[in-house]
Automatic annotation (TrEMBL):
Top-rank taxon, per record: Bacteria
Residue stretches making up the SHSP domain: 22-128
Transmembrane stretches, start-end: none
Protein name according to UniProt: Hsp20/alpha crystallin family protein
Listed Gene3D superfamilies: 2.60.40.790
Pfam families: HSP20
Similarity comment: Belongs to the small heat shock protein (HSP20) family.
């Protein structure tokens, strides 16, 4: 049996094996929880070992996409997705006030409702 003596090759192949292990679920198990409150909702994402920089939050129309990517340190073109979740937001969410925070290894996305959406409002009837 012939051993590989090129240390740079071994370093690169080890990183790729680690990346493939991550794709197979070897590094991080992601847990998503949604809590609803009177003034809005909060999406909590726990992903052990995932850095805050790896998370991405993208809003397009009323679709919120949360995902994280494991980026290769040596090769910026090499990346592996860790998780991807898409949420269709209800019309009462104020899209302009959505916030994302990362604290204590947890991503929190706050979805505030429009002010007064739960308050009844009488509609004036116009005479034509």
């Amino acid at each position: 049996m012939k051993l590989i003596k090129d240390k740079e090759f071994l370093k690169n192949i080890a990183h790729q094996i680690n990346l493939l292990n991550t794709i197979g679920g070897g590094v991080s198990e992601t847990y998503v929880d949604i809590k609803k409150y009177k003034k809005g909702a909060v999406i909590n994402v726990w992903a052990a070992g995932v850095s805050p920089e790896a998370f991405k939050v993208v809003l397009h129309n009323n679709q919120l996409t949360l995902f994280s990517v494991l980026q290769s340190e040596d090769n910026p073109e090499m990346a592996a997705p860790l998780f991807n979740r898409i949420f269709l937001l209800p019309p009462q969410v104020d899209l302009s006030r959505i916030e994302a925070l990362h604290e204590d290894g947890q991503l929190k996305v706050k979805l505030p409702y429009f002010e007064g959406t739960n308050q009844p409002r009488e509609i004036e009837i116009k005479q034509l």
